[in-house]
Design goal:
Elements (H helix, E strand, L loop, with lengths): L1 H8 L12 E3 L19 E3 L25 H4 L13 H5 L22 H8 L19 H12 L7 H34 L1 E2 L4 E2 L3 H9 L1 H39 L11 H15 L9 H25 L15 H18 L3 H8 L11 H30 L9 H9 L5 H38 L5 H21 L7 H13 L1 H10 L6 H31 L10
Antiparallel strand pairs: 1-2, 3-4
Length: about 575
Amino acid sequence: MAGVEDQVSSLPNSLPITPRTVNTAPMFHHDDQFGSLPITPRTASVAQTPSIVSLPITPRTARTPSIVSLPPSQFHSPSLSRSPLLLTGDHAANKPVKTPRSRGLTPRFITPLGSPLRKALKMTRLDPQDAWLPITESRNGNAFYAAFHTLCSGIGIQALVLPVAFTILGWAWGIIGLTVAFVWQLYTLYLMVQLHENHETGLRYSRYLQLACATFGEQLGKLSSAFPLGYLSAGTCCALIIIGGSTAKLLYETLCGATCSNPKPLTVVEWYLVFTCVAVVLAQLPNLNSIAGISLIGALTAVGYCTALWTVSVAEGRLPNVSYEPVRKGSQVNRIFDLLNAFGIIAFAFRGHNLILEIQATMPSSEKHPSRVPMWRGVQFAYLLIAMCLFPLAIGGYWAYGHLIPANGSVLTALFAFHSQDVSRSVLALISIFVIVNAVSSFQLYGMPMFDDMESAYTTRCKKACPWWLRSIFRAIFGFVCFFIAVALPFLGSFTGLIGGIALPITFAHPCFMWLKVKKPKKYSLSWWVNWGLGLLGMGLSGILIAAGLYVVIDTGVKISFFNPQ
C-alpha cells in the first residue's frame, strides 16, 4: 500500500479531497473448464486509516496489487473450485482474462415445465405394450383412413331395419326420432374425439374401456361398459355371420334359380361356415391400419347396397293396399312398449362409437398437430355420407312397403319377397354381393377390439409381442366361436330392440358424463346443462328401452330354434 500512499501525498492541495475507502478492482484468472475468458470478480475493499484520503482512481493509473484477498463467499464457489484462487500479479498479466459462465442448478437437457417441448414430450406418453397390440401397433393413419373406418362401421345391416320402426312410429315421429338420434349421436361422437387426448396428463385413451375406467373408476367403468362393448364387438360379428351366410345362400338361389344343376345345394349352416372361413382368412391382417383398404371396400359396398335398395324399391312403386297408419295392436300398455321398442331399433341403427377411440388411436399425435383435427375431418365426411344413406333408406323403404314390411325383417327381405320376379336378377345379385362384402369387411373392423383384448392378455403375462402363429390361432378361435354362437342362437335378430336399449348408453349417455368428469365445465353453464341433460336422458331411455324390449319379446314370443338356422 506504500505506492498508493505516495501517489496520494503528491497531489496538489488545491484539489477537493473527500475521505473515503479506496475500491480497487483487481484482475485475476483461473483455469476453468470453459476456457480462458475475461472475468470481473467482486471488488476487494482495502480499509484506509482516517488520516489518509483518496480520490477515485481509474484502472489506467491504478496499479494492481500483488495479492488480493477474496471474500469467503467466492472462496467456496463451485465454479472456482477446480483452479487456484490466488495468483501473483506478474503471472496474471501474462494470462488472458476470462469470465466464467453462470451454471444454474437445472441441467441443460431438462426443459422448463411450461415449455412447448416439455408439453410435446408429455403428449407422446404411451403404454409400452401399445407397440405390440393390433389397434396401436401402427400410428400412421390419416383423415382418409378415419373416414373409411367410420363409414364402414357407421353403416351396417342394422340400417336396413329402420323402416320397421317407421311402421310403428308413423311418418312424423319416425322422421323426428331418426333426426334427433342422428344429431345426438353426432354430438357425442364429437365429445369422444375430443376426449381421446388428455393434455393435462399427456395420455391417449386408445380404447373405449380405457377411457371409461379412467373416468368412472376401474370397477364402475367395467361394470357399465364391458358387457355392451363386448356385445357390440363379438355380438355384431355373430350377427354378421348370420346375415352374410343367409345372403350368400340367397345369392346362390338367385343366380341358379330353378335350373340349378346341383341336387344338394349347401345348407344355411354350411353357408355360415363358408362366410366364417373367408372372414378368418382376412382377419390375419396384423393391425387396424392394415385393414384400411378393406374398410374402404366395405364403405363403398355399404353405400352401394343402401342406395340400390331404396332406389329400386321407389322405382318399383308402392305396393297395392299399402298403408302408412302406425300399427297399433293389443292393449294400451302393448302400444306404449311397441313405441319404445321402435325407438330402440332407431338407437341400434347408430353404432360405431365403441370403435371411434380405436380408429383415432391409429393416428400420430402431438401438441402442435393433435389427432383430433384429422379425425374430426374424417368423421364429418363419413357422417355426411351416412346421412345421405340412412334417411333415404328409411323414408324410401317405408314409402314403398309401408306396414307390409315383415316385423322381424328388413328392406332387403321385403325386396326379395315382393319384387324378386320384377327386378332383374343381376340387380338382385349385385345387391346381395354388396351385402356379403360389407359383412366380411365389417367383421374385420368389429373383431379388432376382441383381437386386441386376446393379445393384450398374452403380452401382459409374457411381457413380449404375440408371435404371428399364435396371433393367427387367436383370431381363428374367435371366428369359429362366433360361428358356433350364430348356429346355436340364430334368433338373435329378434332381440334388436332389447339390444339397442342395452347398447344405448355407449353411444348416447356415457360420452356426456365423461366430458363432465374430464373437462369439468363451469357449473350451470350451457355445456354443463346440455351434457347433464343428455346423459340423464340417455340413461333413462336405456332403462325404459330394455324393459320395453323384454316385454315385446315375452309378449309376441320368439321362435326359439337352437342349432336350427332357417
